[in-house]
Amino acid sequence: MDKRHISDGGEGWPQRDEREPPGLLQTADRTLQVLLAFDRGRTDWGVTEVAREFGWDKSVAQRILATLAYRGFLVADPQTRRYRIGPAAIQLARVWQQSRTLELLVQPVLDELTRRTGDSSLLCVPDGFHVRCVAAADGPAGPQRYYPLVGELYPAHAGATSKGYFAFLPPHECSRLFTDRPLARFTDHTQVDPVRLTEEFAAIRNRGYALSEGEYDGDTAALAVPVHVRRELYGSLSLGWRSGHSDDTTTRLPLLRHAASVIDDILGGTARRR
């Protein structure tokens, strides 16, 4: 059966070919399926649960879990006999961060988003009380900065680029962003009142996107949506343009949301999980 999964965004968007490759090694594939089954909603697994989840014999599930534990990718709790992610995953995460593979994967999506909107596009991920730009595409008007956007930090309380991520955290985590911390005022439009910021974040969460003008850069407007990977909040995807130009969200928002879903598909590999 053809297992191809194609993005439905039309011509120009990156497309994925999810057909099962020839020579797929079943044992290796099963092992990776187990690793991918761990997420924030399911941080530990038992042998019986893994066998039931994937329709395997318990002996198969036990051997796979034991192998992963032997190599440090899982850790077995001797009391509960349940498995959690192990320290070997840290090594892979560090290599991933330094490899620029993320930029390689998402750059075509940003380039296409910029081509369709005429705006600069940015993918950002959390970095403490900021989001950090990890990939970007400059609009036809040229760079928004005299230095590269990649690596730029955006504070949680100023601008749609950061609010497109932080506003979608659980409310109790949002409130911690403004507690016992001085909030810098970058322009006259920067909001620094914790109460009003909490209300604004709730409004952003309800409507599903953030829109700002002149909050972080006085001459820049931005529109941002959250990026989820396997249903987990991952970062923000935003469009930026010069203040005073068209702020029409009707055209931009569907393209921005679709690009975020394409990034979810690329980074999450949802079609490969089962």
From TrEMBL:
Gene3D superfamilies: 3.30.450.40, Winged helix-like DNA-binding domain superfamily/Winged helix DNA-binding domain
Domain IclR-ED: 88-269
Residue runs in coiled coils: none
Database matches in Pfam families: HTH_IclR, IclR_C
UniProt xrefs under SUPFAM superfamilies: GAF domain-like, Winged helix' DNA-binding domain
SMART domains: HTH_ICLR
Protein name, per record: IclR family transcriptional regulator
Disordered: annotated segments: 1-24
Domain of life: Bacteria
Record bears the keyword DNA-binding: yes
Start and end residues of each HTH iclR-type domain: 25-87
Regions of compositional bias (Basic and acidic residues) in chain numbering: 1-21
Keywords of the record: DNA-binding, Transcription, Transcription regulation
